[in-house]
Specification:
Strand order of the largest sheet: 1-2-4-3-5-8-6-7
Order of helices and strands: EEEHEHHEEHEHEH
Largest sheet: 8 strands, mixed
Structural class: alpha/beta
Oligomer: single chain
Number of strands: 8
Strand content: 15-25%
Distance between the termini: 21 Å
Length: about 220
């Protein structure tokens, strides 16, 4: 992993893994660690970063295992220690905003914008126990993007899809990474895998299986 955009301040540097196959294909972005307490997803992307090089037959995979390094390093489940903001409540962010807002802006520019599809991996943080499902905004503004997001959830293999038809309908009010991507024209879902702890190895294994199913369905592996 290497920081992208070295001109950035340290609090907005991203360790992005950029993998490319030998043939053309879609770009799939997988993001974890938006909330620092949800470590099972972070471990899953770290595992994929070690396993996928040399396995891609087409396309491009962008892996961002630690989207919120400050929160991950501090062990905070939801908030950043830099400004007490929740990264998954400030998208699309601001280039001239507080550290978490600048981080959101950078993720949108450097991870979402190059992607054709995006998955935001979440899970239990040790206090919030969740089951396995996919969440997606479905505002009905672009049926093509809505349909692609549903296909994305099916390719992941989630047992349930939760559609939000009442959520934000403009990028400026998107708040969530998944919604910001979707409203930018990039089909996106947020996936949860069942776990009872923040670092549940069963959840990590489930995230890896889902990602591999998706990449295979897209013809990348």
């Amino acid at each position: 992993m290497s920081p992208i955009g070295r001109e950035a301040a340290p609090d907005t540097a991203l360790a992005l893994v950029d993998l490319r196959g030998p043939r053309p294909g879609p770009t799939v972005a997988l993001v974890a660690g938006v909330h620092g307490g949800k470590r099972a997803a972070v471990r899953a992307l770290e595992q994929l970063a070690a396993e996928l090089p040399g396995q891609l037959v087409a396309g491009r995979v962008l892996l961002l295992p630690a989207a919120n390094p400050a929160a991950l390093g501090s062990g905070l489940a939801q908030l950043s220690p830099l400004d007490s903001l929740n990264l998954n409540r400030v998208f699309p962010g601001r280039a001239d905003g507080r550290p978490t807002e600048r981080l959101a802006h950078r993720i949108l520019r450097d991870v979402v914008a190059p992607a054709d599809l995006l998955v935001d991996l979440h899970g239990s943080d040790g206090e919030e126990m969740v089951g396995a499902f996919a969440y997606a905004a479905r505002p009905g503004l672009d049926p093509r993007v809505d349909s692609a997001a549903r296909a994305l959830a099916e390719q992941w293999g989630t047992p349930r899809i939760v559609w939000d038809t009442e959520g934000p309908r403009t990028l400026a009010t998107s708040r969530f990474l998944q919604t910001a991507a979707h409203l930018s024209g990039v089909p996106a879902i947020t996936v949860f895998e069942a776990g009872t702890t923040s670092d549940d190895p069963a959840a990590t294994a489930a995230f890896v299986r889902g990602a591999r199913r998706l990449l295979a369905a897209q013809g990348l592996i």
